[in-house]
Write a structure and sequence with these properties.
Length: 171
């Protein structure tokens, strides 16, 4: 790949900006504990919630905010370490890495700015059958992790396993 930064930085930046902008817009227009606002019929609703815990509202005790801020910073260090291996694995890996990093930064900013937690607002489902409420950063992290892991696995599987800079997952 000629310049992985041409993929990584714009995509990560756009995700952080879109995530922050949508969270602030929802906070400004939707009241906490208000009835969900239909966005796409009943399939996609806007519901304002604050998640002080980790994924799926997992709790870590009285110091969880600081534990989660530290964990996010540590994860960003790991993602920085994966930058070169992802660049060698190709565009799909760089897209995945950018989405995970951008999502991590978006949620980290919420934790640093407010002790209420991460702003979640996307409410998917049909009728009473709903998925967890999440945000653009969460979607970026989920999609990006799948793309990154697939592309690194595929890169290793197609004969580039001897490359010392590609992280091994079977060690």
């Amino acid at each position: 790949m000629r310049s992985p930064s041409r993929i990584f930085w714009p995509l990560a930046s756009v995700l952080v900006l879109a995530d922050c902008a949508t969270k602030r817009a929802v906070e400004a227009t939707v009241a906490l504990h208000a009835h969900p606002k239909p966005f796409v019929a009943d399939l996609v609703r806007v519901t304002l919630e604050y998640n002080a815990g980790a994924s799926f509202s997992t709790q870590f005790g009285p110091y969880q905010r600081w534990v989660l801020i530290g964990s996010a910073l540590a994860m960003l260090v790991v993602l920085a370490w994966w930058y070169r291996p992802a660049a060698r694995a190709g565009r799909l890996a760089m897209v995945g890495l950018a989405l995970v990093a951008g999502g991590a930064v978006g949620n980290l900013l919420d934790r640093v700015i407010s002790n209420r937690g991460v702003v979640d607002f996307l409410d998917l489902g049909i009728g009473a059958t709903r998925f967890f409420v999440f945000n653009l950063a969460d979607a970026g992290i989920s999609v990006g992790a799948v793309l990154l892991l697939y592309s690194l696995w595929h890169h290793e599987r197609t004969g580039h396993a001897g490359s010392p800079s590609v992280p091994r997952f079977d060690a």
